[in-house]
Write a structure and sequence with these properties.
The structure holds 2 protein chains of 2 kinds. Chain A is α+β, with helices and mostly antiparallel strands. Chain A is built from 3 helices and 7 strands. Chain A has 3 domains: 37 residues; 74 residues, SH3 type barrels; 31 residues, no CATH class. Among the domains of chain B are: 220 residues, no CATH class; 76 residues. Chain B has a 3-stranded mixed sheet. Chain B starts with a helix and ends with a helix. Chains A and B meet through loops of A and helix 5, helix 12, helix 15, helix 16 and helix 17 of B.
Chain lengths: 152, 489
């Protein structure tokens, strides 16, 4: 990156270099601002238990989280693994969890409203003793919009 | 025998027309949900024939009779209203207006009034995660309004039985603690929720689910969040029930003990027999309401996959939701603190040997009445309960006196009026207690508790004329309790 900027700036003076660096800064900042809000949880690869909300139905696995996603395969809810590798959650095209199943090299996306991931959703304990502090999910915003168990 | 216990009252209610298609099984040719189109495209909204102003006033009276009032959170209320307005704007032609109110209750729940009011418990802002989920809650409730559903509210109609039996049970449980124990339950979150929540016919519930989903999707929300809404409410409900399980169990145990004994009074024996049936029906209704969340999810998922495959890929609206809730975190926390105080005191009263940390409750109660919630009914009610528990009746009364009027209404919510009257009686100010209770009773259209409080008080003072008037009024309003109106416990 540095080399490229230096090459572009060669022969154009320090102000041009500053302008390029400024543009790069703005570009990086804007990308971060656009990407971050759409990915609530961007933790990479943690083991997590899973709760299939409707085990009587099949769980569909998709190739991407976006609008053009395609169903890759489906697994009967009762046979869905109890634990997966949880990668992240995408909110920009619906609540989609990015996961990897044991023994498979590729990754999948599942509907986050049909499959709950403990690492994301947390333990549902909405009412709790005031002395205890239990985080609901990674950010304290798992099921239950606000953690009522956090320390004051 | 067990079958008879459950089936007899259910059959009686069915014959009386109180219960319609409760099976949840769609009846061929009668279900209005189309098999190959969106419900919103085929639905014909009924024309409202109701007297709007009168209906809204009656509904408000019912709400303020059974609860400890509204939650005065202007920003959250106007935010919820903006979501509802967005839904109404895209509703079919002829859809009525509706207004959202927040009810001071931690339990899960919401109720719709056909004349155009939706009451949601403030706790919705505790357990929901996104505007889309709030949109489904409001869309569902609004559908009841638009479809002009009128619930046959069994719990509400059974209220007089419940109140009388509670009075009786708590007064026999311990001779010196009637005041404290009864006050622990009147207006409590668990009882208010049970009494106020409408018990919908399942077919009405299904229509509201489907139309609610259509409405929220048409308004631009992600329909998939309806599934998460149902799952979260189910878990929240379980959590709430667990928290109040001890109180509920203890109350049922006391009632059982009282109702099992046959007395010399045929009037009381007849009442207890009717009440047993009523309690059975309540339990049946509650359990039937709790069982169907998964069925509702399955039905909605199938419908969504068929009608809204692409709409399920919309972004989730949670940024403004989270920001608005965060801005109100303090007032929401104060209400939770108040609820913790109320729940702890209830548990201590009804679970023998349960110890409570008064210092901790004092801290919670003080925080509950700090800042913006210093004059709120719910927070002052909690502090008043703590002082009552401590036997500091004058201080308890002071807390009630600090409550501000609600939404232009100078009269306190009825359950708080009742608590105030009991406290005035305990502090030797019976005349004022009678005077203010007469005002509150007239305002709230004479709830049965008002008769139960006033008749013995006035009899004690020798006011035979007024006692007779009240007895006649009680029998006229509550014919199922005519014997007990004549001789209140």
């Amino acid at each position: 990156m540095k080399i490229k900027i230096a090459v572009l700036a060669r022969g154009r003076g320090p102000s041009y270099l500053k302008m390029l660096l400024g543009a790069a800064f703005v570009c990086v900042t804007m990308s971060t601002l656009i990407i971050l809000p759409s990915q609530v949880h961007a933790s990479g690869g943690v083991r997590s238990t899973v709760e299939v909300q409707l085990p009587m139905l099949d769980v569909e696995l998709f190739d991407t989280p976006g609008q053009t996603r395609k169903s890759v395969k489906s697994i009967p809810g009762t046979e869905f693994p109890a634990e997966v590798e949880y990668i992240e959650t995408e909110m920009a095209a619906g609540r989609m969890h990015h996961i990897r199943l044991d023994g498979e090299s590729r990754d999948y996306w599942v509907d986050g409203n049909e499959v709950w991931i403990t690492a994301y959703d947390g333990v549902i304990e909405v009412f709790c003793d005031a002395d205890q502090s239990r985080a609901l999910g990674n950010t304290g915003r798992g099921a239950g919009g606000r953690s009522t168990c956090r320390k004051k | 025998m067990k079958f008879l216990k459950w089936s007899l009252p259910a059959a009686m209610l069915m014959l009386a027309g109180c219960v319609t298609n409760q099976t949840g099984v769609p009846i061929p040719f009668l279900s209005p949900i189309p098999d190959d189109a969106k419900y919103i495209e085929t639905v014909k909204l009924p024309t409202t024939t109701l007297e709007k102003a009168e209906g809204l006033k009656k509904a408000r009276t019912k709400v303020l009779t059974s609860s400890v009032g509204l939650a005065d959170f202007p920003q959250l209320q106007s935010y919820a209203q903006s979501v509802l307005d967005r839904i109404i704007a895209t509703a079919p032609a002829g859809a009525p207006d509706a207004k959202v109110y927040l009810l001071a209750n931690v339990g899960p729940g919401a109720m719709a009034v056909p004349e155009g009011a939706i009451y949601i418990h403030f706790s919705a802002f505790q357990y929901l995660q996104s505007e889309d989920q709030l949109a489904f809650l409001l869309g569902h409730e609004y559908s009841h309004v638009a479809l002009q559903h009128s619930p046959e509210n069994l719990l509400r109609s059974l209220r007089p039985y419940l109140v009388t039996a509670m009075d009786f049970a708590v007064s026999r449980a311990s001779s010196d603690s009637k005041l404290r124990k009864s006050l622990q339950l009147y207006g409590s979150d668990i009882l208010s929720r049970d009494v106020l929540l409408p018990v919908w016919d399942r077919s009405a519930e299904k229509q509201a689910d489907f139309l609610g989903l259509d409405l929220m999707t048409k308004a631009g929300y992600n329909p998939s969040e309806s599934l998460r809404f149902l799952a979260i409410v189910g878990k929240y409900d379980d959590s709430f029930e667990r928290l109040h399980l001890a109180t509920r169990n203890q109350l049922e145990k006391q009632l059982d003990a009282q109702l099992a004994t046959t007395t010399d009074s045929p009037l009381w024996n007849r009442f207890t027999s009717e009440f047993r049936d009523a309690i059975g029906t309540i339990q049946e209704q509650i359990s039937s309401r709790h069982e169907d969340a998964k069925d509702r999810m399955v039905a909605l998922l199938g419908y969504m996959k068929r009608e809204y495959a692409m709409e399920r890929r919309r972004p989730i609206n949670n940024a403004i939701y989270v920001k608005t809730v965060d801005q109100n975190a303090d007032v929401l926390d104060h209400y939770l603190d108040a609820h913790k105080v109320i729940a702890a005191l209830q548990e201590a009263e009804f679970e023998s040997g349960k110890k409570i940390n008064i210092g901790k409750l004092e801290g919670l109660a003080r925080r509950a009445v700090s800042g913006k919630t210093s004059d709120h009914a719910y927070t002052r009610y909690a502090f008043s309960k703590l002082r009552t528990y401590q036997g500091k009746y004058s201080l308890a009364l002071k807390n009630i006196d600090l409550i501000a009027g609600q939404d232009g209404d100078d009269v306190l919510p009825f359950q708080i009026s009742l608590e105030r009257a009991e406290l005035q009686q305990s502090t030797g100010n019976s005349k004022l207690a009678i005077k203010q209770m007469e005002v509150a009773a007239a305002h709230y259209d004479w709830p049965v508790e008002a008769y139960h409080f006033l008749i013995p008080m006035l009899a004690g003072q020798g006011d035979k004329g007024r006692v007779n008037e009240l007895k006649i009024g009680c029998v006229a309003r509550y014919p199922q309790q005519r014997e007990l109106c004549a001789t209140p416990q």
